[in-house]
């Protein structure tokens, strides 16, 4: 009666460690991008809550001030788009993408499209 050894071998432990390390590396790179996007969403929500009629220049100034406070560096004026809607309102959209280089020629592209009607 020969008993087989049970448990993980060194190779399976190394494979699991490599997978956890790879996912951890991607997660560490992506977390700041999503935190910055949360700041962008909060800035848009604060515009919506003001409930006052603003011009495009006023909206740009308010967003620039909030982005400066929250250290949002990936959004520029070229990423902010205005579109008139029914009822005299205006849709403010912020569309941007972030490319994160992981290792040599491996990269991750994250696209964001946030909008609010004011």
List keywords for this structure.
single chain; 118 residues; alpha+beta; 3-stranded antiparallel β-sheet; 26% strand
Please summarize what this structure is:
With 118 residues, this protein is α+β, with helices and mostly antiparallel strands. It contains 2 helices and 3 strands; from the N terminus they run ααβββ. The protein has one domain.
Secondary-structure content class:
alpha+beta
| Secondary structure tally, helices | 2
Large-scale geometry = elongated
Domains (count):
1
Radius of gyration: 23 Å
Termini separation comes to: 78 Å
Can you give the mean pLDDT? 92
The major β-sheet equals: 3 strands, antiparallel
Helix content: 40-55%
Q: In total, how many beta strands? A: 3
- Largest sheet: spatial strand order: 1-2-3
Beta strand %:
25-35%
Given as residue ranges, the uncertain stretches (5+ residues, pLDDT < 50) are: none
Structure description:
The N and C termini lie far apart (78 Å). It is built from 2 helices and 3 strands. The chain has one domain. A 3-stranded antiparallel β-sheet has the order 1-2-3, covered by helices on one side. It is of the alpha+beta class and 118 residues long. Helix 1 runs antiparallel to helix 2. It is elongated, with a radius of gyration of 23 Å. The longest helix is centred in the N-terminal third of the chain and has 41 residues. The mean pLDDT is 92.
